[in-house]
Amino acid sequence: MSQDHYFSRDPTVASRSKTIQVTLPDVSFELDTDRGVFAHGHLDIGTDLLLRTVPTVPPGELLDVGCGYGAIAITVALRNPDARVWAVDVNRRALDLCARNAERAGAVNVVAAEPDAVPGGIKFAAIYSNPPVRLGKEALHELLLTWIGRLEPDALATLVVQRHLGSDSLAAWLTSLGHRVERVRSRFGYRVLEVHAVAASPHDDSRAR
Ligand SMILES: C[S@@+](CC[C@H](N)C(=O)[O-])C[C@H]1O[C@@H](n2cnc3c(N)ncnc32)[C@H](O)[C@@H]1O
Question: Residue 18 falls within a domain, yes or no?
Answer without folding.
Answer: no
